[in-house]
Amino acid sequence: MVVIHYTAMQSAEAALDRLCDPAAGVSAHFMVCECGRVWQMVEEEARAWHAGAGRWGAVRDVNSRSVGIELANRGDHPFGEAQIAALEGLMRGIMDRWSIPPERVIGHSDIAPGRKSDPGRRFDWRRLALQGLGVWPGRAVPGDFARDAARFGYPVGDVAEDVILAAFRQRFRPWGRGPLCDADRAAMADLAARFPVDRGVPNA
After folding, report:
1. pLDDT values of the chain reduced to their tens digit, one per residue, 204 residues
2. I need a labelling partner for 189 at 20 to 30 A (CA). Which of 119, 140, 176, 181 fits?
3. What is the dihedral angle through the alpha carbons of 89, 136, 199, 58, rounded to the nearest 10 degrees?
4. Is there a single domain that holds both residue 189 and residue 152?
5. Same domain assignment for residues 33 and 112
6. 27-44 burial string, b = 16+ CB within 10 Å, else e?
7. In this structure, are 91 and 166 located in the same domain?
8. In a shared domain, residues 112 and 179
9. Are residues 27 and 92 in the same domain?
10. Which residues have a Cβ under 8 Å from the Cβ of 9 and sit 6 or more positions away?
């Protein structure tokens, strides 16, 4: 998998210092700064400590199954063009080298809903999907939200349904408000039908 994060720190330099500090107990394979510069801190084949106790499908040790990418961003402002363009180039190489399909590109908030919010509502997931670097829902008949969320990969059972809904909306329907609705159910049903987490792809 590829897991995308934001640093939630005041500067890329501060984030780099923390990610390279053994005492911090956190790390990532790459970081992309606002100007598009990319730092590699961990070899892709090595384990980095970026995903914590998250889960995607049946995978609970996400750190051992993923490449972590940090985006220098406080979490309260948009991602600039230079940064996103650099991210896209970086992702293409990683996904090609490790045969990672678009549905295995996820956010930290997907694997740890309620606990993590990165890369946040300002991150443009649809742009990645249009380039084959992620997925985006189409139209489908509304189904059972919890069942479809689990089929897509969300850690249903670990957290309440409203927490899953918030994480789902943050990524796929950031304009969504109020209680669970048919638009949520339809989008999740489409994702579950086209991109089930247990389809048996490489690195599953």
Report:
1. 999 999 999 889 888 888 888 888 889 999 999 999 999 999 999 999 999 888 999 999 999 999 999 999 998 889 999 999 999 999 999 999 999 999 999 999 999 999 999 999 999 999 999 999 999 999 899 999 999 999 999 999 999 999 999 999 999 999 999 999 999 999 999 999 999 998 654 443
2. 119
3. 90
4. yes
5. yes
6. bbbbbbbbebeebeebee
7. no
8. no
9. yes
10. 15, 18, 72, 74
Active site (annotated) includes residue 70? yes
Q: How many residues does the chain have?
A: 204
What is the domain-level CATH number for residue 57? 3.40.80.10
Q: Report the distance separating Cα 186 and Cα 200, nearest Å.
A: 24
- Kindly tell me the sign of the dihedral angle through the C-alpha atoms of 178, 109, 69, 6: positive
Instruction: Return the amino acid letter for 165.
Output: L
Token readout for 67 is 């490449």
3-state secondary structure 104-136: HEEEHHHHCCCCCCCCCCCCCHHHHHHCCCCCC
Of 43, 70, 103, 161, which one is the catalytic site residue?
Answer: 70
pTM beyond 0.85: the answer is: yes
Round to whole Å and give the CA distance between 170 and 129.
15
Provide the number of structural domains found in the chain.
2
Which structure tokens are listed for 37? 């510069």
Same domain, 7 and 103: yes
**Do 148 and 140 contact (CB within 8 A), yes or no?**
no
